[in-house]
Every structure is written in structure tokens, then in C-alpha cells.
């Protein structure tokens, strides 16, 4: 992971030591799903996907490629995976599919995150041990691990190239992040043809999520020159692509551009993690029901205002994203959101001014918020 390259949020090229690490083998391009057979080799696999997968034809496509080495299909993954659902699913998976060599996860962020939880066996075969580790924020050593191959079907999550899995505990009013060395995917197959089945709302939310990933990687204490290059390219690409894609959802070239932007953003924040906008988003999803892509992005203009001027090095990188001076970029970004029909005002999501101030202060103190360059060092 990125280490100490810019612990003050300044320029990362002034003699600082930094590290960029990402072990995921990526295959990108239309029709690249055909490479799945070569990725798996002779290994057996279980498909983890969403309930609509069969109707989209995804299950048949995977079965045609994997053949008899496909030992089972789990197609019950719901949005925003909750501990209440994952606990029995995890138990059944390790009971029924212990012999499988790998998991092939086909879906959006919820599917990919759920697959990361499933791919590691719980200590003593007791899922509560995973919950205890999540609550304590401590890693654990899984007794057994399945190889994970990710196939994203939305252009936004970035989960295909990161080790993190967001897990919700609505009963406990909490959100956790599972992060182990073993939850890095072995390989990611990014086939833009898959995102063509996404409805307009999912296309929009996914694209906004990717934009947030890219900007969050820039105004970040863990940024480095490689993550910067990926993040700037991703942000510019998504800013250019998403409005046109919403107007022309069947355009394959635009789908491919959005998928590439999401991948670049995922690679960038795989080394920096996210920051303030994501830290603000989690209670908005938990308590106000906002879809993640909206919750983590509508505050971007406000966060950009807070970030600008804090570091000349970060300002220089942020300025490369926009075609207007950085001082005018927050308003330009608000206009861009407006063109997509997305409000950037807390009150339009049922959040009072007092609550929004409390959310921001609490977010700055959280683990993701402390990555933000304007936060006090933790």
C-alpha cells in the first residue's frame, strides 16, 4: 500500500519516499470475459452474482466458459451487504463449496464486496470471529482462502482492484470495512459490454462514485505520483464521458471510456484509500437511504473548496483535472452535477444545516476523513 509519501498533504515529488502496490492482474476490453478460462486454468469455481444475473444471460455465459469446473451459483447478493445476510451465506458457502478453488464475482460493488467476505474462511468456522475483528478494526488470519476473480458490471465501484469490502451492520447502526492481504482479488476482468445492462440510475451513480474515487485520491495524505497520474486521468475522463453516456447509454465507445475511468480511479485509490467525501457518505446511506454513488459524490464541490489552498502540491494536481482555474472549479463542478440532475445541497437530501455540520466534523475525525489533506494529523 502507499506509504508515507506525503504525510503532510504536500507535493509527493520533492524527494519523498513512496510506494505504489497493486497485485491484481487486470484484463480490459470488450469481449475480455473470454479470458476467464485462461485465468482459472484447471481450477474449479463458484459464481457469486446478483439475482438478475440469469435474466441478463450472465450465468449462461460464465457456464459456457467454465464448463463443468463451475461447481455452483450463488445469486442472492442484495445491495449494500449486511452482516445479517452475510453470516448465514458465509456458513452455507464454506459448508457446500469448501472444495472449490476460486470465486468468480460478477456484479457491482455489493457483489464484489460480498465475494471478498466469502473468499476467506472464518477462524474456527465461526463467522462471529470475523464480526469481532471488524468491530475491533483488526485483521485476522483466515484458515483457508479462495482465489477471487472479479468481473465488474458497473463502471464505478473500483472494488475489482482493491482489497476492501464494505459491510453494513444496520442492527448495530454501523459500517465496517474488511481489509486483509487475502482479500485482494487475484485477477480482474473488465469487460465494458457488461455495463450495457445497467439502468440509467445505476450508470449515473456508478460514474459519480468513480469521480469521487479519483478526486478523493488526490486530496489525500497518502497520494503519490502514480496515484496522482491515474486519478487525474480518471477524473478528466469521467467528467467528459458521463454526461454523454447518460444521453447515449447504448454507445459502446462511451461505455468503454466510463469503464476505463472507473478502473483508473480504482487503481488510484487502491493505494490512497478514500477521504472526506466518502467518510461523510456512510451515515447518509445508513440513515437517509442515499445510494452510495450519490452520497459519496454530491459533496465533492464543498470538499474541493475545503481542499483548495491547503497545499500547493495538491493544488497543482487538482488544477490538472479542470479546464477552469482552480478557484472557479467548485462552481464549475456544481454546474456539472446540475447538468446531470444531481443536487449538491444537503437540504435537498433531507439533511438540516445543523446535521450537515455535525456530519462533516464527525467525518473529519473518522479513519477515512483523516486521510483528507485538510484534516489534523491523526
Any overview of this molecule?
The chain has 378 residues and is α/β, with parallel strands linked by helices. 46% of the residues lie in helices and 11% in strands. It contains 15 helices and eight strands. The strands form two sheets. Strands 1-8-5-4-2-3 form a six-stranded parallel sheet, sandwiched between helices. Strands 6-7 form a two-stranded antiparallel sheet. A hairpin with a 4-residue loop joins strand 6 and strand 7. The radius of gyration is 20 Å and the shape is globular. 48% of the residues are buried.
Give structural attributes.
Rossmann fold; alpha/beta; Dehydroquinate synthase-like, alpha domain; 378 residues; two-stranded antiparallel ribbon; disordered N terminus; six-stranded parallel sheet
Question: Helix and strand layout, with pairings?
Answer:
Blueprint: E1 25-28, H1 36-40, E2 45-49, H2 53-56, H3 58-66, E3 70-74, H4 83-96, E4 102-107, H5 109-118, H6 127-136, E5 147-152, E6 164-169, E7 174-179, E8 187-190, H7 200-218, H8 225-247, H9 252-272, H10 276-288, H11 292-295, H12 300-307, H13 312-319, H14 329-339, H15 353-365
Helix pairs in contact: 7-8, 7-9, 8-9, 10-15, 12-14
